[in-house]
Amino acid sequence: MKTAGTSIEAALVPHCGPDDLITGSLYIGEIDNPDVDLSPRNNWEEFDLSGDEAKLYAASMQQEFVTHPPMPWNIKDEITTARVTKPIFDSHTTPEILQQNSKFSNLTRDYMKITASRNPWDSTVSYFWWCYYAPPFVLGVFDGAPVTGRQMGADQSLCPLIEDSTDTLRYKFKCFLESSLNHDSPYGIIENCNTVLWLASLAECYYDPEIDFVIRYEDLEKEMGDLFKNLSLDFQGIPKIKSGQRKSKLPYKDYYDKVTKDMVGDAFSRMIQIFEYQFEN
Asked: What is the mean pLDDT of the chain?
């Protein structure tokens, strides 16, 4: 799931066993959060690369992320072998990707399938802020050293600031929606793709007619309570995670003019129709 996935997973983790697969979080500030357990479990693989494979892997890491420690600019020329530790599944793995893995698709065939949805006009504003204030994350282990990174991407001149006026935020948001960026996804880096179209296509990846239970973000606490009751689990509330990136309390509707409202409405038309979302006036 993409919407509220980390918080939902954190609420379910205490009910999972040692053999369960938990993607957890790779973001600094979440993976080391003392209040919740977001440690990945049974979701790491280690493999050796050599020759051109090692060079290509190092070069792609260098191209897609600002890494720490920094990747030397000529690493693809110097490296000959590498031992890599990385997640098996992305934390936002789609149903399609899971089905492509025969081992796990067979194992989870009889599992309850759960996803979450959110009003697209609201979630798009949330993504706007996330692109500029997302914390660094662990990319994996490369040649024995942990590597953290930040996603390369959005135009820094459009970074929303807490002191920005409504007009300034609306202008920056519109430019952001019209931009084409390299977007990180469970399928890898999607290059030079319009932001709104990419978000809409990604949202559809997490919806499947065979989903058993849909959690609406707008009523998250109640619907999580219903889910836990359905699963016969004790519900202790939802941990608050990823709540600090949106610096302004401005309602999502104030970011939009008619052009941007229609832009998001058209791109997300299928999901809006399925879940009967409306733009809040």
From this structure: 83
